[in-house]
Amino acid sequence: LRKYLLAYIFASKYLHNMEARRDVFQAIADPTRRQIIGLVAKQPLNLNAVAEQFNMSRQAVSLHVKILEECGLIMLRQQGRERYCEARLDKLSEVSDWVDQYRKFWNEQFDSLDKFLKNKKANEKRKSGK
Amino acid sequence: MKNENQANKLTIVREFDATIEEVFDAFSNGDALSQWWGPAGFMTTTLKFEFNPGGIFHYRMQQGDAIMYAKFVYQRIEKPNLLEFITSFTDEKANVVKAPFDIEIPKEILYTFVFSEKNGKTTMVMTGNPINANAAEAAGFNAIEESMQQGFGASFDQLVVYLKK
């Protein structure tokens, strides 16, 4: 975690332009948009295939796709007569980073707790062995 | 379609080779806590330890010039099966502050620990949920599906590289 905390401190001191990042967070604040990302993260899909997954008008889905495109989370590519949505996972990583960090952090804490409990047990055994 | 509430929490399950009382004690005893809690590489100092609902564990983390404060605010305590606390970064007076790094994360996270013992081993299930988060912060916390995670495992290192450019 040390490395990451230092990176965070580094980031807070030197990274001033956080606007792009906020956009990413706003883009995924909506559950429909999160589902769209989840769908196209697995494979590129054309707009109709995406729209079929939702109980809402194609126009409404298109609007969500447009917002995601503007935030740089998905890319629209014309292929023949179809427009395909592709996920831009590098952008999403900005969001996942700190969740992953929390997971890592807690796992490290629990490693430490595990060690603590083992030491305690070993000490008790030593004492009772006397 | 995937259920929105599935797999979108921070959940960690661990088994410890110790009785449920020993594991719970490691959380509820200030001495024990100070021996295992705290980020690696940081010197952690306990400033306040009140293990009761509404009480706080306030601590300082220091590494060279970098000093941070944080706290737990205890919620439900049902010894030895359940423990709940809210974590946040704080100032030196234990007031909640934004995380000391410029990334949008929830200020407060509610952690629930459920312990159960079988054959002398204790299983712990920890879940973390943001509270009082604005939509964007909560989304950042909840939006991560495993299907997405596959694509960007080592991304933080990349961010570090990116930041140094």
SSE order and pairing:
The complex is a heterodimer of chains A (130) and B (165).
Chain A: H1 2-14, H2 19-27, H3 31-42, E1 45-46, H4 47-52, H5 58-70, E2 74-79, E3 82-87, H6 89-129
Antiparallel strand pairs in A: 1-3, 2-3
Chain B: E1 10-16, H1 20-28, H2 30-36, E2 43-49, E3 56-63, E4 66-78, E5 82-90, E6 96-97, E7 108-118, E8 121-131, H3 135-142, H4 146-149, H5 155-164
Antiparallel strand pairs in B: 1-8, 2-3, 3-4, 4-5, 5-6, 5-7, 7-8
Helix pairs in contact in B: 1-2
Summed up:
Chain A has 130 residues and is mostly helical.
Which features characterize this protein?
heterodimer, A: mainly alpha, three-stranded antiparallel β-sheet, 6 helices, rod-shaped, B: 165 residues, alpha+beta, 5 helices, 41% strand, disordered C terminus
Head-to-tail CA distance between termini of chain A: 40 Å
Q: Structural class per helix/strand content of chain A? A: mainly alpha
Number of strands of chain B: 8
Q: In which range does the helix fraction of chain B lie?
A: 10-25%
Largest sheet of chain A: 3 strands, antiparallel
Low confidence ranges of chain B: 1-8, 143-165
Mean pLDDT score of chain B: 78
Largest sheet strand order of chain A:
1-3-2
Class per helix and strand makeup of chain B: alpha+beta
Q: Count helical runs of chain A.
A: 6
Measured as a percent range, the helix fraction of chain A is over 70%
Question: How would you characterize this protein structure?
Answer:
In chain A, 72% of the residues lie in helices and 11% in strands. Chain A is built from 6 helices and 3 strands; from the N terminus they run H-H-H-E-H-H-E-E-H. A 3-stranded antiparallel β-sheet of chain A has the order 1-3-2. Chain A is rod-shaped. The longest helix of chain B is centred in the last third of the chain and has 10 residues, at 155-164. Chain B starts with 9 loop residues before the first strand and ends with a helix. Helix content of chain B is 23%, strand content 41%. Chain B has 165 residues and is α+β, with helices and mostly antiparallel strands. The chains are: A mainly alpha (130), B alpha+beta (165). At the A-B interface, helix 1, helix 2, helix 3 and helix 6 of A face strand 1, helix 1, helix 2, strand 8 and helix 3 of B.
